[in-house]
């Protein structure tokens, strides 16, 4: 059965309100951290009554979880999209560039989440990212672009390299996502191809 006009309008209002809450919370997180703001501030910044905010999120922790989940979803959709085409090495390069772009764009939020050690199903989310890399590696091996490597360990090594590079190099110098993604691929290419 097709949703009627009223249901469509209600869904649009829900999406708009959740988006406004997300945007408001992000600004407040960056300014005050997770503990330094109130639900009233979120409602005010989102342009809604406090009662409306409570309909969507009964507690501040739920807003924090929602922002974390939304942040991960944006990242995962991005890396999934960019890795649909190309050779396995090209996919890893595109994955790396997307990883760096996302890290630069969301650095303050990512650092807040890491500092607060908010789990937000972190293990499950990391498994999804590892699985994406693992599938790229398995495809590269099946298409004989890669030598036989352990796809699970190779995915973990690659992801660890990206996290380390993103977290530590960014503290020393600016990251150039395109150039640095190429450097990462040049560094790991011998592992996958057996060719220096």
Task: Walk me through this protein's architecture.
The structure is a single chain. This protein is mainly alpha-helical. The protein contains 9 helices and no strands. It folds into 2 domains: 5-58, Homeodomain-like (Arc Repressor Mutant, subunit A, Orthogonal Bundle); 63-193, Tetracycline Repressor, domain 2. Helix 1 crosses helix 4 (60-82), helix 5 packs antiparallel against helix 9 and helix 7 packs across helix 8.
What radius of gyration results from the CA coordinates? 20 Å
* Architecture (CATH level 2) name of the largest domain: Orthogonal Bundle
Class from helix and strand fractions? mainly alpha
Q: Indicate the CATH class of the largest domain.
A: Mainly Alpha
Helix-strand sequence: HHHHHHHHH
- CATH topology of the largest domain, by name, is Tetracycline Repressor, domain 2
**Which regions have little confidence, pLDDT < 50, spanning 5+ residues?**
none
Mean pLDDT figure = 88
Number of helices: 9
The end-to-end distance, rounded to whole angstroms, is 59 Å
Strand percentage, roughly? Answer: under 5%
Q: Roughly how much helix do the residues carry, as a percent range?
A: over 70%
State the total count of DSSP E strands: 0
Q: Which of globular, elongated, flat, extended, rod-shaped describes the shape?
A: elongated
How many domain regions?
A: 2
CATH superfamily of the largest domain: Tetracycline Repressor, domain 2
């Amino acid at each position: 059965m097709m949703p009627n006009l009223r249901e469509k309008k209600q869904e649009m209002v829900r999406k708009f309100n959740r988006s406004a809450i997300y945007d408001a919370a992000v600004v407040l997180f960056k300014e005050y951290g997770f503990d330094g703001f109130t639900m009233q501030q979120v409602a005010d910044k989102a342009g809604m009554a406090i009662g409306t905010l409570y309909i969507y999120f009964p507690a501040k922790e739920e807003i924090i979880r929602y922002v974390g989940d939304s942040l991960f979803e944006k990242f995962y959709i991005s890396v999934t999209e960019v890795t649909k085409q190309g050779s396995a090495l090209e996919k890893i390069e595109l994955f790396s560039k997307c990883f760096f772009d996302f890290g630069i764009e969301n650095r303050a939020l990512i650092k807040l989440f890491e500092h607060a050690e908010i789990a937000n199903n972190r293990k499950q989310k990391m498994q999804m990212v590892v699985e994406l890399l693992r599938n790229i590696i398995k495809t590269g091996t099946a298409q004989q672009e890669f030598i036989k490597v352990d796809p699970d360990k190779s995915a973990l090594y690659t992801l660890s390299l990206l996290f380390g590079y993103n977290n530590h190099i960014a503290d020393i110098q600016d990251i150039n996502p395109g150039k640095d993604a190429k450097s990462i691929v040049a560094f790991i290419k011998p592992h996958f191809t057996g060719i220096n």
